[in-house]
Amino acid sequence: MSIPKTKTAYLETYGCQMNEYDSELVKTILTKAGYEFVLSPNTADVVMLNTCSVRDNANRKVYNRVHTLRQSRTTEAPFKVGILGCMATNIRKDLLEDRSLKIDFIAGPDSYKKLPDLISTGFESGEKTFNLTLSEFETYSDVYPTREGGVNAWIAIMRGCNNYCTFCVVPHTRGRERSREPESVVDEVKRLVDEGFTQVTLLGQNVNSYHANDTDFAGLLEKVSDVPGIKRIRYTSPHPKDFPRHLLQLMADRDNICNQIHMPLQAGNNRVLEMMNRTYTKEEFYDLVAEARETIPNLKMTTDIIVGFPTETDAEFEETFEVMERVEFDSAYIFKYSERKNTLAARKFPDDVPEAMKTERIVRLNDLQKIVSLKRNQAQIGEVQDILIESLSTKRDTNMATGRNAGNVLVLVPNEGRRVGEYTNATITEATPNVLRGIVS
Ligand code: 5AD
Ligand code: SF4
Predict the structure, then answer these.
(1) CB burial class (10 A; 0-12, 13-18, 19+) of residue 323?
(2) How far is the C-alpha of 388 from the C-alpha of 200, rounded, in Å?
(3) Distance 380 CA to ligand 2 centre (A)
(4) Which of 189, 229, 250, 436 could form an SS bridge with 193, CB 3.0 to 4.6 Å?
(5) What's the whole-model pTM score?
(6) Which CATH architecture is the domain 384-440 placed in?
(7) Which CATH class is domain 8-131?
(8) For residue range 203-250, what is the model confidence (pLDDT) as tens digits?
(9) Does the Cβ of 19 fall within 6 Å of ligand 2?
(10) Ligand 2: which residue has its CA nearest to atom 5?
(11) What does each C-alpha distance from 52 to 87, 108, 341, 355 come to in angstroms?
């Protein structure tokens, strides 16, 4: 098959914010190579899925999508299908050998600059092409992402991960940790301000281990905070094991660093935390939370939890319940343990907590969190908050605009007179576990 004259591409993204950011990089790289991005796979020469393999359900979603795409491929629309992202690295053998999948090209997270070549070589030869090499240096700092709308800009400040939590596939799919130079991050933030963005979220698998040109994460945050015109800075995710205390102070001192931390706990029992290789204890986590709340007034804190890690007993699970009850996170993402190929947990620990027990545990934690989130949200009733407007309607109500307060909680306000991207003061009048409602004051 020859290379089509007008090359069109279509891209779907699964998984985390880092993947969203990577898709923006891929758009820039392919646009420079002459591709035009379209909104439907049926009008594309090349269809790409930027994939996630953090849990099995993310994997399955992509397999199903590939099969559906294959069925919709016709002689009139014979698009090529490519797999990008974390699944690409993690299941390279299956993807390459499973002929029924009919994947045409595969690119891992460090190979996106090679995409134009991979695709065109495949068109010329009709063969599968792939590049899954993980780099110790690639940070894509020379690629400016193609962002589409929205009021928040993601910026990856580092890539990869060296932590090796035993459940986690990321060090295997994204490779060694490397940080981007602070100057290049600051330049990107300045350019974003020129484009009209006022909020940025700095991304890294563990932002606390950011280090480049004698600058640590707090140093980088300070430089970003100094950029004129930047009003809200968020970041995700830090690791409780090495959360620097001077970072808390910086957050307290700077108005434009949001008083919000996503602090992944994962489990509340010390034996399980050790098996997870998290390298902190429940007691250390309590201390960190206390210090964070003491230093930063009105701090909002969210977390990630895994239930049913191998060998987790009922009593050990109860400790996670207790920690969540005591800490009172504003919200929590709670997952059932999902065994991932290549991880230490998969090699060493049998996935022995029965599915029904995992379900029971996740339901209990979700029920608890609902009550806690409602309480935390109700405590905000009567406050006057600064809301950054994100959208002028909700799915259910065309009269309500949505936005977020500094703590990242969703707030609905009447949309009359509102504009996307503006900041507006609202008095909070109602609360549910997931959302606040307010009137513009
Ligand atoms: N099983 C379940 N949850 C996982 N996470 C990461 N790996 C797994 C796994 N194997 C969760 C962690 C992490 C979040 C991004 O996904 O809670 O913080
Ligand atoms: Fe993101 Fe992890 Fe999923 Fe990769 S595996 S897309 S890093 S959540």
Answers:
(1) buried
(2) 12
(3) 33
(4) 229
(5) 0.95
(6) Beta Barrel (2.40)
(7) alpha beta
(8) 999 999 999 999 999 999 999 999 999 999 999 999 999 899 999 999
(9) yes
(10) 54
(11) 6, 11, 13, 22
